[in-house]
Specification:
By secondary structure, the chain is mainly α. 73% of the residues lie in helices and 4% in strands. It is a multi-pass membrane protein.
Length: 329
């Protein structure tokens, strides 16, 4: 427990001082926003066992609904963000009810089809969304004459969002609902025999993942000032999945670690002119072959071995999803 407190305190301290010591704050800001969406996907897939290849569509819905309400109707962006999240949650509820009756590959294909449909719809609604050219002139976050234009403030908003989502997710997984989700993943038949309403639990987490993604997309849209359909297509859904696996699907903080790593890798590939899709495929192969449980779990294993060597005592272990052990997450 003491180690966890120290770890998260240092992480928070680093997040606070980062704008003063790192030059490319834009990259970190977008990575933290991505981490919010990855965290929702992690709850749904890693802890719930429900495959989703359409979560970028929820980011797009959040971004476009908030953007359209701000640009076309002149509503304050601080209001439109929450309206967009609420509408996205309702869409997730409607779509998730039939989709979550599917399992395995069929569920993956269903969510993939949903993602493709949303991107296609956004591209065809020229009058409202600007079509493939995108929606421009999206105002900064604000209300009336007050607007947030400082990049550092946007960064702190993103950090605060992730911290709130992380705290909520961590406590949720320790609750009765979280334990029900883990039981459901282990065996849906066992969960039903225990009286768990599996359809309801799956739908709750599907909607929750959509809410996290919608917040991420909406804030990103107002920060960038312009959004295009390609920012939320199926490739982005795969990138969310890669970030989750890269950081470690069995540990919640892995969503942040994976997102940061993915953005740094993407920035590097851009600087040396390596094709993005080539790097995406290469990372997937490396993850599958060599980093089965992600960078976070690999770090924890190394940390535990060093600690054992110094103290001569094995660290207290607890079981997490995937059968791995850790004492930091």
């Amino acid at each position: 427990m003491r180690e966890k407190t120290v770890f998260y305190t240092l992480l928070l301290l680093l997040a606070v001082i980062l704008p003063f010591i790192y030059h490319d704050l834009d990259l970190v800001l977008r990575a933290v926003l991505m981490a919010c969406a990855v965290l929702g996907l992690q709850l749904l897939m890693s802890y719930g066992g429900q495959i989703s290849l359409g979560n970028a569509a929820f980011m797009g819905l959040g971004a476009y609904i908030s953007g359209v309400l701000s640009v076309k109707f002149g509503l304050p962006s601080l209001l439109t963000i929450f309206v967009a999240v609420a509408v996205t949650a309702l869409i997730a509820l409607i779509v998730g009810y039939p989709l979550l009756r599917l399992k395995g590959y069929y569920l993956a294909l269903g969510t993939l089809a949903f993602g493709l449909s949303v991107t296609s719809l956004i591209s065809t609604l020229y009058t409202w969304t600007g079509g493939p050219a995108g929606l421009i002139g999206i105002p900064d976050i604000g209300w009336g004459d007050f607007e947030i234009t400082n990049r550092a403030i946007y960064y702190y908003i993103a950090v605060a969002m992730f911290a709130i989502f992380f705290w909520y997710s961590s406590n949720l997984m320790k609750s009765r609902v979280g334990r029900a989700l883990l039981t459901l993943k282990s065996s849906e038949n066992t969960a039903e025999a225990m009286g768990i309403r599996t359809a309801k639990v799956k739908l709750q987490f599907f909607v929750l993942s959509a809410v996290f993604a919608a917040f991420s997309g909406a804030v990103m849209g107002h920060y960038l000032g312009i959004i295009v359909p390609s920012q939320f297509n199926v490739i982005i859904s795969i990138e969310l999945l890669i970030a989750m696996l890269l950081g470690g699907e069995a540990i919640l903080i892995g969503s942040l670690v994976g997102s940061l790593l993915w953005f740094f890798i993407s920035d590097f590939t851009h600087s040396v002119a390596i094709p993005r899709m080539f790097m995406l495929g290469l990372i997937m192969i490396v993850l599958i072959l060599f980093v089965e449980h992600g960078v976070s779990q690999a770090f924890i294993k190394v940390y535990n071995r060093i600690k054992t060597g110094i103290t001569g005592k094995s660290p207290e272990k607890r079981i997490v999803q995937g059968g791995e052990t850790n004492d930091i997450s």
